[in-house]
Every structure is written in C-alpha cells, then in structure tokens.
Write a structure and sequence with these properties.
With 140 residues, the protein is an all-alpha fold. The two termini are 12 Å apart.
C-alpha cells in the first residue's frame, strides 16, 4: 500500500492545468469503451458522481475540472444535489461495479478509470481518507 500512498501524494501536487490535461487524456481513452457498452455514458456519470461524493461534498474545483476536462456540461446545482443526497456508499458501490465490469473487458480501461477518479478526487489538492478508501475499493 506504500505505492498507492505515494501515488496519492503525486496527484495532490498537480496543478489545475496538469489535472485538466490528464483528465482530458484519460477521458479520451475511456470514451470509446463507454460507447460500446449499454448505458456507457450513464455509467461514466455514476463514476464521476461517486468520485465527487467520496468525501461527502462537491467542491467547485471538482465540478470545474470535470467540465473543463471532458466538455460535459453537468449542472452544478444538479450534481451538488445528487452528491448531497447520495446514500452512504451506495453510489461508490455502483462505481466499483462499473469499474470491475469495464475492467473485465480491459485492464487498461480499469486502470484509466481509477486514475481518472484519483485525479478528480485530488482536485482540491487533498485526497481525504474517505476518498482514499473509495479509490482502494476500486482497485480490488
């Protein structure tokens, strides 16, 4: 687990522009896989929502980062409301299932999805214990 902690610290040190560029590249790699599975974009939205809600709140940095990196236009108020209303761990369990399902198709896609989540969780330059726990569950 020492390696994952080192990875978390590396992501926390990234600038906004570095994060945005990384998320954009990851999204461009992940997007083709989302197009070939049923409800792929909805699954991606669950993954984004789970990452944003892992610590129980949506930060402006997280919202801006997703919007700027992917070009997707989520309503901040809608996403904030979904984050606030998401049950303890329900959305994270769904995200874990999505990552595992797509990981069965491609280990590379799973790795990129987990990297996407880590990068998004680090938007405020701090990956909380709750966010770390969420990421570690995705890796299992």
């Amino acid at each position: 687990m020492l390696e994952i902690e080192k990875l978390f610290r590396e992501y926390e040190k990234l600038s906004y522009d570095e994060r945005r560029e990384m998320l954009s590249e990851l999204y461009n790699d992940i997007y083709p896989a989302l197009e070939v599975v049923a409800n792929g974009m909805e699954s991606f939205e669950v993954l984004v929502l789970a990452s944003c809600s892992a610590d129980g709140k949506l930060s402006v940095e997280e919202y801006s980062l997703v919007r700027d990196a992917t070009g997707l236009d989520f309503s901040y108020d809608r996403v904030a409301e979904l984050v606030a209303s998401s049950g303890d761990g329900d959305i994270q369990k769904s995200a874990d299932g999505i990552v595992d399902f797509l990981g069965a198709i491609s280990k590379e896609i799973k790795s990129e999805m987990v990297s996407f989540c880590i990068c998004l969780c680090s938007a405020d330059k701090k990956i909380s214990m709750k966010e770390k726990s969420f990421i570690k569950k995705l890796l299992k």
